[in-house]
């Protein structure tokens, strides 16, 4: 691990407006020392340094996923894979559960992730009756792709103490049949009640999950990510132990759950920015609403076919505003999950009020997902300098349920990178994995082509150029974490993080981008991933 590396003969997109293209990059002791033609780069390094001949392949700054859950990605690799690509109907999901029940001791949990009821043949969620039929002696929890809804069997509901007499928790919902009995489908805080019954992972388990998740990101060209939700000290310790052992796979910006972590961190004087270029404390995080798929994102107008349902607040708006003021005053960047337009509006109100009460230069508060928007909200985002973090491949995976629940008119500007550009807003690309796969090229394709995974269009007027899509995954991601001075562009002095694709991206039909593999992920001049 010398940190010295030469890349030549490539199609290099530097994201540096001063020199946007080059054929070679020289990295010395982990930092870029030259960007230009092959001769310029060779002259900046000693003879015999390790060299990669790109052979016309595209190289970019290391990709940055601005909102994901690397720890969750690692744990998801151990759970049942319920992805729509491999499971067309409820019997397919149940077969996974049946096999797991046959292999595991009675009473142990079975967890699966990734189904989408909108893409199942039955177009409904699995129920506890479905799950009881194949696993009556194991508690079972299947998570929808969004991770805001779950389907639990009777034993899992019993472990959680959920019965017909259990009221809906604040910020959550228990689906019920006509007799008032729980169907097994639990939403938001009701899902949390079930999840709290799962076995607690050890610190070593957390470390293993972070490492596994990080390797999955590297294979997809992602060299930096946000861990979008540290809830307890042992999770922070797991990250710190990996950092101390020089075993943290990717650079990580840690979002700290405000309710659980802010008090202790404020008492110690820790705030956003504490750490180093490998591991850094990021925003204080809150949830304002839920998801479109669960009909729990908070909207200005009701969901299609649900005249009385405008979604849920995850907490009272006045309480959210007070928490934002507290975190803002403590020097934290704040990142709030807000998907519905009413939620986005509330978050903007909270940020404006916090800044008025305690002015701070350039706090760069964030809106995680920032899904249902219009020009009025965009103008406010721009005026406040707020950074949206759209899920850039969400429409690839969730188009059907978005249209089913909202109609095409209301999702026209969802994850609309062109709209963000029109207003001069810096929007950083994200996956929210394991909600969707870690694939950054899927995000690139969705931004450039505005198609779902079946090739069906989703308001192509919001499409952007490949150059701008890459900017969202590099420069903008660095900006969202106050790190644009050290990463996000390839120019002398910057960190030597590079992603190398298997081909020249700019020679492809945009509809083919999602199939492109990553040949190398390079961090500080060392090859962290090589496709064999």
Short structural description:
This protein has 532 residues and is an alpha/beta fold. It is built from 17 helices and 23 strands.
Output the keywords.
21% strand, 32% helix, Urease, subunit C, domain 1, Diaminopimelate Epimerase, Chain A, domain 1, 532 residues, alpha/beta, seven-stranded parallel sheet
Tell me what you see in this structure.
Among the domains are: 1-62 and 488-532, Urease, subunit C, domain 1 (Roll); 78-195, Diaminopimelate Epimerase, Chain A, domain 1, CATH 3.10.310.70. The model has no long low-confidence stretch (mean pLDDT 96). The strands form four sheets. It has a seven-stranded parallel β-sheet. Strands 3-2-7-21-22-23 form a six-stranded mixed β-sheet, covered by helices on one side. Strands 9-10-11-12-14-13 form a six-stranded mixed β-sheet. 32% of the residues lie in helices and 21% in strands. It contains 17 helices and 23 strands. By secondary structure, it is of the alpha/beta class. Strand 9, helix 3 (90-103) and strand 10 form a beta-alpha-beta unit.
Strand order of the largest sheet: 8-15-16-17-18-19-20
Per the CATH scheme, the topology name of the domain at 78-195 is Diaminopimelate Epimerase, Chain A, domain 1
Cα end-to-end separation: 19 Å
Q: Tell me, what's the shape?
A: globular
Question: What topology emerges from the helices and strands here?
Answer:
Elements: E1 5-8, E2 11-13, E3 21-22, E4 24-28, E5 31-36, H1 38-43, E6 51-53, E7 58-61, E8 63-68, H2 70-76, E9 80-81, H3 90-103, E10 110-115, H4 128-134, E11 140-144, E12 149-152, H5 154-160, E13 172-176, E14 182-188, H6 189-195, H7 203-219, E15 222-230, H8 233-244, E16 251-257, H9 258-268, E17 279-287, H10 317-329, E18 334-338, H11 341-357, E19 366-369, H12 375-384, E20 387-389, H13 394-406, H14 417-422, H15 440-449, H16 466-472, H17 475-480, E21 498-501, E22 518-523, E23 526-530
Parallel strand pairs: 1-6, 2-7, 8-15, 9-10, 10-11, 15-16, 16-17, 17-18, 18-19, 19-20
Antiparallel strand pairs: 1-4, 2-3, 4-5, 7-21, 11-12, 12-14, 13-14, 21-22, 22-23
Helix pairs in contact: 2-7, 7-8, 10-11, 11-12
């Amino acid at each position: 691990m010398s940190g010295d590396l030469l890349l030549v003969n490539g199609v290099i997109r530097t994201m540096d407006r001063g020199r946007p293209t080059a054929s070679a990059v020289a990295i010395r002791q982990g930092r870029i020392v030259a960007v230009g033609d092959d001769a310029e780069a060779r002259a900046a390094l000693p003879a015999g340094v390790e060299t990669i001949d790109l052979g016309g392949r595209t190289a970019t700054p290391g990709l940055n996923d601005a909102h994901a859950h690397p720890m969750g990605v690692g744990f998801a690799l151990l759970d049942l894979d319920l992805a729509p690509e491999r499971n067309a109907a409820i019997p397919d999901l149940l077969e996974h559960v049946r096999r797991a029940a046959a292999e595991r001791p009675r009473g142990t949990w079975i967890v699966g992730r990734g189904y989408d009821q909108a893409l199942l043949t039955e177009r409904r969620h699995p129920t506890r009756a479905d799950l009881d039929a194949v696993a009556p002696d194991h508690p079972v929890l299947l998570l929808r792709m969004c991770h805001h809804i779950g389907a639990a069997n009777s034993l899992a509901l019993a472990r959680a103490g959920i019965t017909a007499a259990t009221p809906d928790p604040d910020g959550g919902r228990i689906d019920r049949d006509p007799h008032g009995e729980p169907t097994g489908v639990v939403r938001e805080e009701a899902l949390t009640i079930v999840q709290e019954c799962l076995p607690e992972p050890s610190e070593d388990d957390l470390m293993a999950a972070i490492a596994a998740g990080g390797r999955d990101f590297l294979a997809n060209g992602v060299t930096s990510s946000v861990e979008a939700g540290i809830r307890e000290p042992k999770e922070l310790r797991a990250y710190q132990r990996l950092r101390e052992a020089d075993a943290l796979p990717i650079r990580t910006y840690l979002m700290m759950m405000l309710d659980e972590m802010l008090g202790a961190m404020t008492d110690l004087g820790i705030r956003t920015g504490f750490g180093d270029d490998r591991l850094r404390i990021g925003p204080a995080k809150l949830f304002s609403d839920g998801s479109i798929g669960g009909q729990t994102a908070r909207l200005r107008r009701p969901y299609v076919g649900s005249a009385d349902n405008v979604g849920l607040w995850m907490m009272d708006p006045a309480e959210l505003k007070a928490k934002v003021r507290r975190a803002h005053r403590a020097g934290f960047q704040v990142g709030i999950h807000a998907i519905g337009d009413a939620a986005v509006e509330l978050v903007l109100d909270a940020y404006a009020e916090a800044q008025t009460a305690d002015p701070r230069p350039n706090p760069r508060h964030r809106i995680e997902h920032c899904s249902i928007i219009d020009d009025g909200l965009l103008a406010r985002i721009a005026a406040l300098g707020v950074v949206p973090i759209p899920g850039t491949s969400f429409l690839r995976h969730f188009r059907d349920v978005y249209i089913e629940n909202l109609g095409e008119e209301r999702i026209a500007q969802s994850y609309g990178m062109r709209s963000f550009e029109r207003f001069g807003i810096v929007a950083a690309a994200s996956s929210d994995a394991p909600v969707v796969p870690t694939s950054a090229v899927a995000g690139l394709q969705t931004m450039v082509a505005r198609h779902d995974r079946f090739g069906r269009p989703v308001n192509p007027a919001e499409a952007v150029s490949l150059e701008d899509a890459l900017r969202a995954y590099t420069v903008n991601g660095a900006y969202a974490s106050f790190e644009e001075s050290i990463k996000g562009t390839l120019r002398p002095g910057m960190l030597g993080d590079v992603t190398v694709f298997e081909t020249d991206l700019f020679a492809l039909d945009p509809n083919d981008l999602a199939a492109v593999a990553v040949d190398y992920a390079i961090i500080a001049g060392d090859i962290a991933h090589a496709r064999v």
